[in-house]
Every structure is written in structure tokens, then in C-alpha cells.
Amino acid sequence: MDLSRRTVLLGVPALAATALITPSAAAAPPRQSPIHIRSREAVTAPDLPALEIDYPRHVDLRVHYVRKDESDPAGCSVRGREEVVEAEVPEGAAGVRIGGTRYELLQFHFHTPAEHRLDGRRFPVEQHFVHRGPDGETLVVGLFLTPGGHGGTVQDAVLGGLPEECGPEREVAGDLAAALPRELSTFRYQGSLTTSPYSEPVSWLVLARQQKVAAASLNGYRKLFPEGDARETQPLNGRVVQFRPQ
Q1: How would you classify the pairing of strands 138-147 and 211-213?
Q2: Contact (CB, 8 A) for 197 and 79
Q3: Distance (Å, rounded) from C-alpha 147 to C-alpha 22?
Q4: SS3 per-residue string spanning the chain
Q5: Interval 75-126: pLDDT, tens
Q6: Which CATH code of 3.10.200.10, 2.60.40.1730, 3.20.20.140, 3.40.50.620 fits the domain covering 3-67+99-244?
Q7: CA pair distance 212, 104, nearest whole angstrom
Q8: What's the pTM?
Q9: Which of 50, 139, 198, 212 is geometrically suited to a Cys-Cys bond with 149, CB 3.0 to 4.6 A?
């Protein structure tokens, strides 16, 4: 992502954005994810480009367990904290648009408990929608999931029949357009992947509004990872979180 696009997308000051993409970045403080988002400290930025969603009403997903922990190479009994259940999206089927640039949705996955904290609260599950930009840049939309839904969401479809570690891949169909809340206000900041190799930079847009799903769906994922599969929050190191109401 070039300097102008990153500045427009996240509201990153020019000098800070330059530090992210020049050789001097090696000396800069780490900009890792997740973080503790404090809404009162976020800078409201209504002039940032809106988040436009282009997700289909029907999509066929390939759901599989991503195994990263090699401490148990002979078996499948260890569920590492960096392992997730991932739903792959067909190429070109979905994406988001920000400031005239389209970012293709590659996959979404889940973490329990939520990796980002919001005003001291840690939600039971967080969903990450991972997108790729035209120049290979990574953009992730984060969504907090809470109990209270009646089932029927694409989240329920995926979480309702989770594959075991080393288990067979599942095929699931769902309404991806209804996966996000209607209110699309976002907290935006520059960070990293939350699993190895923790690559930077990643553009994060964390939705302020939570999505309700069936309690049984959340409980099923939490049972699959009884010790959790979430990374702890990382220092801000001078970063400023922007809030874009929408």
C-alpha cells in the first residue's frame, strides 16, 4: 500500500506512515496487534473514507482447521493458541471498498476470547475478515461476537459444525451479506497479524457494533479451544486509534 492510500484509509499522519514503509522502520517501535481500544481516547475522524461492503447473499465456504502447533507432530491432540478454524471464500466472491480501492475477502476465522479489548471488555469470540488489496496489502475487519442470536447467520453455519484438528474439511453455505451489523462505525489503526509471523503492516478496522449469534455456536468454539486461541494485547507504542462513525 502506498503512502497516500494508507493515510487516506487510516488517517495515519504523514511522518508516521513514512516510518512504516521506509528502511528506518527497523528502528521504529513495534506496531503489533491486537490492542486495547479505549473509545474515549480514539480520535473521531468523520472525513475518513466509508467502509463499503460487497458481500454476497449466498456463498459457498470451505471450512477447515488451521494447525500451526508442531509440538505434537505425531498426533492431533494439541490445540495451539495460534490455531484457528478458517472459512475460505471463493476468489472474487466478496470484498470491501474504501476510498475507491477494492480489497478482496480471502477468508474469515475466529479467536476466543476476543483478541482486541474494547473499553476494558473482552468479548467471548472475535471474528476476523481478512482481505487483500491490489498491491498485496492486508486489511482485516474485526467483529466482536456476542450471544443472543437465534441462529441462521453464516457465523452459526460455520460454528455449528466445527472440524476437529486434523479432521476433514467441511463445505458450508451462508449469507455473507448479513454477517456484519448494519452500523459500520470502525476503530482504525495500523498493526500486524496476530499469529506467527506477526507481519506488519496490517490495516485494522474493528467494528464498534457487535454481532449477535446463537449462544450454542459460541460455546461450541470455546469448547474446541478450552485454553483459548487468542494473542494478548500489545503496547500502542505511540499509535493513535481513529474512530470513523458510519
Answers
A1: parallel
A2: no
A3: 44
A4: CCHHHHHHHHCCCHHHHHHHHCHHHHHCCCCCCCCEECHHHCEECCCCCCEEEECCCCEEEEEEEECCCCCCCCCCCCCCCCCEEEEECCCCCCEEEECCEEEEEEEEEEECCCCCEECCECCCEEEEEEEECCCCCEEEEEEEEEECCCCCCHHHHHHCCCCCCCCCCEEEEECHHHCCCCCCCEEEEEECCCCCCCCCCEEEEEECCCEEECHHHHHHHHHHCCCCCCCCCCCCCCCCCEEECC
A5: 677 788 889 999 999 999 999 999 999 999 999 999 999 999 999 999 999 9
A6: 3.10.200.10
A7: 25
A8: 0.88
A9: 212
What are the two backbone dihedrals, phi and then psi, of residue 158, each rounded to the nearest 5 degrees? -75, -45
Number of H helices, E strands in the chain: 4, 15
